[in-house]
Fold each of these.
Amino acid sequence: MSSIGPTAFYTGEVWSRHGLSHPKLVSAEGRVLHALTAPGFAVSRLLGGPTLDGMLLGRHRVIDALLEDAIAAGRVGQVLEVASGMSPRGWRFTERHPDLLYLEADLPDMAARKREALARIGRPPTHRVADLDALATEGPLSLDAVAAGLDRGTGLAIITEGLLSYLPRHAVLELWSAFARTLAPFEHGLYLSDLHVDADAPALLSRLFAGALSAFVRSPVRVHFADEAETRDALLGAGFDAATVELASDHPAAAGLNGAERVRIVRAGLG
């Protein structure tokens, strides 16, 4: 467990508690972490602040909805989810869309754990797991190596959820450029992610919430951009043709979730 961050287990528990996951994707570590941290995060809720579970559910449901729209429109037939952890999205989408190729990718320890869990569930050949170091620029763990076997004639969506806040700004910009280059040869390219911006967290309570979250994940939770406009400019500068950066709470999929107003959803496209 030492090489796997606690959020991978915690988020797995959140999805399970809200009927979004499969029992084989839930861990004892996640149940323990959720129980241990519940009193601390309850303080934010009692003070009228955001809740971690609400933020996590908001971003997850909105990314799901946007991906579903792209599949229905015929623009996406393949998905590469980077740093997928114990997310149940690949399981749910391949159950709903049998022809969809869904490739989950993560660092080797987490990828092995996910591969074992999916094997216990029983998955079709279209639902796969690959070892990936998102920051590697070459070698078998690089993005180029993992994406090499995908069909260039079919639209591809790349998803990151819960990853960007743990990376420094320069790494985020490099990652976005790599994603744009990877998507460029495909018939259609879509990038979906979550992101925090400074404009959405001006209050002291939100800063305290971010501090508590940083302590929980044992790493600083970084905010890289001041607002929506700066984020959009960075995405366009990375090579995307178009980009939107909207509050999760503005999408019907996150209606009523306390915490969804503290996270942005990135949608960037090529082709």
Amino acid sequence: MGRITVRRPVVKLTLGAESTRRADTLAVEEPLEIRVGGTPLAVTMRTPGNDVELAAGFLVSEGVISLGEHFRSAIHCGGPGTGGPSTGSGTASAPGPATVGLDILDPTGGNTYNVLDVTLAPGVALPDPELTRTFYTTSSCGLCGKASIEAVETVSAYDVDSDDMTLDLATLIGFPDALRAHQSVFDKTGGLHAAALFDAESGELLVVREDVGRHNAVDKVVGWAALNDRLPLRGTVLQVSGRASFELVQKAVMAGIPMLAAVSAPSSLAVELAESSGLTLVGFLRGTSMNVYSRVDRLLTAAPVG
């Protein structure tokens, strides 16, 4: 799987038994610097692969773009200080604060495929300088510097509350297993989150993406939709493999997704944002049961909801 996984030696210890040495398969985690028009915007720790989708989804989440046509192109550049595709050299320039530490991966300035420069379509405004990250976005948390719920509501291009989609409960309970069946890298490493997008009407699995960061997995899904001109994602369900945080609800709202389902718990702020935006938020989706925290009317059940 190339740079998605690596093999590393490990010592396995078991109480009452002899230690053993073997090779273990690990999920790769590397920084990706996202630039727009040559200007550094953010650094996120991610699993390499589907980087263009990741960048496109990130820009949707930040309100920089809202349609696929706003995204013109993207190219992997050399390391810090190069402004174009890597050829082993480049015109030096002062790297922005978001580039700190990237050169540890290739001190020669060669192309590590860890810098992606996005070109927006003509007429699309460049990101507000206030969006520029001055620190790393870690693999455990992708949200920083936002003014909470109000910041999301003021920039979202889509009204998920008006989406009249409905979903049969029997269809929804099958989504976690369908997602799990497509987590090929997780099977090898046990170390990746996953996100999947389903069509609510047909139950069809549209796309699955894995990453060390749950927010990155969702950005890759949203980016896939953007690059395939499928925004807004009306009538779809976003299924995630872990908990439902505020940032995942935010990303769903920004992409026009009316329902988010998670196998674990949501946070209080995630529920608050789901309620205020009209998104259906499902947690603890395991087996045949679940908790529904908002807009339960979208779920069709055999028995009335008390």
Amino acid sequence: MVAGNRRRTRAVLSVRLTLLTAGACLMVLPFAYMLSTSLKPDRLVLEVPPRLLPSHATVSNYTGAWTSNDFGHYFFNSLLVALATTGAAVLLSSTMAFAFARFIFPGRRLLFGLLLVGLMVPTIMLLVPQFLLAKRLMLLDSLWGLILFYTGGNLALNTFLLRSFFQDIPVELEEAMVVDGAGAWTRFSRLIVPLSRPALATVSIFTFLASWDEFAWALTIINNPHKRTLPIAISLFQGQHATSWGLVFAASVIAVVPVICIFVAFQRQFVSGIASGALKA
């Protein structure tokens, strides 16, 4: 009986390991192909059959991508927009989530319900209304127009996730601070925020990713070449009659580097935030 249970357990573990390995390979393969293609000279980019290990590796695609089409300037534009959006969205959504989680006020459920409705509307459907609003606010062709609308677009999801996490923090901890005379802002900044670092790291990563690689809104409102962002810069390498795929993949690798760095820096908090219920409904 015991031997049978052990065999069954080993079989289940083997199946799980096989599925996880296959899933990991499927996830890693596109990145490996992108990195491999970025190191190939132009004549070998579309070779058949494709080779993951280039026979004549070169970094000319990276130097060409960085120096052409003012790519470096667009990179820093995207970095500025993503960092500003992340800071503003996390600050606003955390305070909103704290209010929904801890305060009782008229219309709280209605407001939170309307917030959730915003999550159900596809972003592309809001493109025209947002453009008209940006035009009235004179935010067209401006990085502020990107930051403002990216921040607004991330508030609903961030507030939903953070509210769930804040509700799991024992109210007794706040009551002890109230006895000592602490106000709402003191409780938020000195208790809620330190205990919620995993959740804040999670929403920070989500917000940074959403603003870093957004393409449609940036393409819609930005006409000034000096204010373009990274996704637009990568699309410029694709011509009407020919495409420099080596430059496209090299630029894509450069664009992925900050995302990987941020995930590595906040990996522990990110995993902890998911495990402790930051994404709990």
Amino acid sequence: MHIIVCLKQIIDPEIPPHIFQIDPVKRKQIRGRQALVISDFDAIALEVALQLKERTDGKVTAITIGQKEAVESLHTALAMGTDETVLISDPAFEGADSFGKAHILAAALRKLGEFDGVLCGRQAGDVELGLVGPFLAEKMGLPCVTLAANLEPRDGKMRLKRPIEGGYEILEAPLPFLATITNDESNVPRYASVRGIRAAMRRKIPVWSAADLGLDLAEVGPETARIEMEELFIPKREMRCEFIEGETGAEKGKRLALRLKELKLI
């Protein structure tokens, strides 16, 4: 069984808030010297694929769209147990929106050949739109299951568990399929071993450009974007403290309610 996982490399979301910066003109986060990591839900998707590989003696391929620095995340994927990786990189891809990225990834999937399933994180850890997975399924004509946590092949189909309040929802999809993966106690990403990291660093990662994928440059890039981000900013938060006085608890409660009403908070 061959599972392909779509990864995204992002700036580590655990950086201290005081060094988090936004470029208001380009409407994106300023990297600076911050560490880059695999987006959380994509790492979970990779873990789900690796668990499936271990149960079926299958194969896992990880792909990502990014610049040359994205090889760091692909090396991490190899160290975790991924069999093959591909970096999809071209200056023309800069600024592509979710539609554009789905178009690029679809070309990569076709170049990779036969596969049984495609996994994406439920949403990226930076912009959190959650659109690329469903758009990619539409591009490829694949059945799409969203917010799945576990996979189990059965009778030539894939059975998926989706967490819901109070339990799980069981769904079934024909092969090949696409699923977006959410977190669950059963799919916490594993740590890469030191031996795995050393072996991964010796692996050469293939890089596919727009030409390699047979893409028309007029179909990718910011000029073709259909999603426009109007504004990106860090909200300003003001905090202040007021003491509500009163002789009794009932009196304090009444004055608190009146004060909240004055502030239009109730």
